[in-house]
Amino acid sequence: MPDLRPRLPGVVLGLVFVASIFSFASGAAATDHPPPLKTEPLEVRTAKGVARFTVEVADTEASRERGLMFRRSLARDRGMIFEFNPPEKQWFWMKNTLIPLDIIYILPNGRIASIARNAVPLDETPIPSGVEVGEVLELRGGRAEEIGAQPGDLVTTPLRPQG
Questions:
Q1: Dihedral sign from CA coordinates of 32, 33, 38, 43
Q2: What is the phi/psi pair of residue 141, to 5°?
Q3: How far apart are the first and last CA of the chain?
Q4: Looking at residue 161, what DSSP letter applies?
Q5: What strands, in cross-sheet order, belong to the sheet with 154-156?
Q6: Average confidence (pLDDT) over 89-116
Q7: Phi first, then psi: what are they for 31, rounded to 5°?
Q8: ∠157-53-81 over CA atoms, to 5°?
Q9: Rounded mean pLDDT of 111-117?
């Protein structure tokens, strides 16, 4: 029977090396595909009527930083809401964002302050809110026009139903 003791440390080091590579690769994969965000219903009330969406909630620093980056599509009835407490002026950009978006800046009372329509994919030019906002809604580019969204229109969520 061969003596395995001299080889054992090499085998253990090899397993540790393989495990650390797997751990590193798993971490990289987690960055490419972050865990799903919670979703909530959202309504935009315009002169044309009520448009209903299901939005992902970006309420952590990490989820706000990532936003809709690297997405290749966004359904007509989907979007992402960014929550800021306390309200403050915001500047969004389209770095690593592959699809055009409508960026809707929302006042703390739920009224639309301004809309950046069809923001250009991959453009790193800051898009300012101009005023302190409590939320920012991102929709597929062109949706704000389709639903007739204008400054002053009301956005409601379960957390802020009345505006």
A1: positive
A2: -50, 130
A3: 80
A4: S
A5: 112-119, 101-106, 127-140, 78-92, 49-58, 39-46, 154-156
A6: 97
A7: -70, -40
A8: 60
A9: 98
Of 100, 96, 90, 99, the C-alpha closest to 124 is 96
What 3-state class would DSSP assign to 144?
A: helix
Q: Domain 39-156 carries which CATH code?
A: 2.60.120.1140
Q: In 3D, which of 139, 132, 156, 36 has the Cα closest to residue 84?
A: 132
The dihedral of CA 74, 78, 84, 87: what is its sign? positive
pTM: 0.78
**Distance (Å, whole) CA 131 – CA 69:** 24
Domain map (residue ranges) of the chain: 1-33, 39-156
DSSP string, 9-57: HHHHHHHHHHHHHHHHHHHHHHHHSPPPPPEEEEEEEETTEEEEEEEEE
55 near 137, Cβ under 8 Å? yes
How deeply is 153 buried, as exposed, middle or buried, from its count of CB atoms within 10 A (0-12, 13-18, 19+)? buried
Distance in angstroms (rounded) separating the CA atoms of residues 144 and 97: 18
Specify the residue for token string 């500047």: 91
Tell me: pLDDT of 138 over 60. yes
